[in-house]
Amino acid sequence: MNRISWCLAALTLLAVVSGVRAEDEAGWVKLTDGKTFDGWKINEAPDAWSIKDGAFVAKGPRSHLFYVGNDRPFENFELKVDVKAEANSNGGIYFHTKYQDEGWPKAGFETQVNNTYTSDPRKTGSLYAVQDVHDVMVEDDEWWTQHIIVQGNRVIVKVNGKTVVDYTEPEGQKPQSADFARLLGEGTFALQAHDPGSTVHYRNIRVKRLP
């Protein structure tokens, strides 16, 4: 074993012994502790949210859970969220958004969570109403990883490592309306509780800032 290989092996062993994953070593930061809502803020209908087996569980009337644990806005980043949706469930992961007391978030973009929800054709991975996915990518009651990458005017969404959205915002893009201002900029993240009939689990939420 040469010197470089020995050093890499030693670093890997150190990471394992100290309980630090390679992903964390590469600049990823966890946004949840799996036990509390620390760093997060629920708006309307707080009873729509609970914590079970290390995951935020959304089940109840419309409500959004906003990340407020860092005052520095997120502009360019990678975000990974492990998600599980039960049958006929709808949810979402927002980015470049900001806290609001009620209503559907007006700022930022939503990446859809929906495998078999019958009332909306936009399926998991969609950049909601901007670049939609209509194929079912994952099964209900199974965990998957939703990976969102934002760099400049480009958004990539991956589901279990497969790219399902690759969107470039046109130069000079204008807000679609006062209630639908889907423009890239900066902001925070939010998770969605959509309706009482939907149950969605979100866990292992981690982010890496990009230049």
TrEMBL record:
Superkingdom assignment: Bacteria
What does UniProt give as the signal peptide span? 1-22
Pfam families documented for this protein: 3keto-disac_hyd (PF06439)
Ranges of residues in domain 3-keto-alpha-glucoside-1,2-lyase/3-keto-2-hydroxy-glucal hydratase: 27-208
Keyword field: Signal
Drop me one GO molecular function for this one: hydrolase activity
Q: Which InterPro entries match?
A: AL/BT2_dom
The protein's name? 3-keto-alpha-glucoside-1,2-lyase/3-keto-2-hydroxy-glucal hydratase domain-containing protein
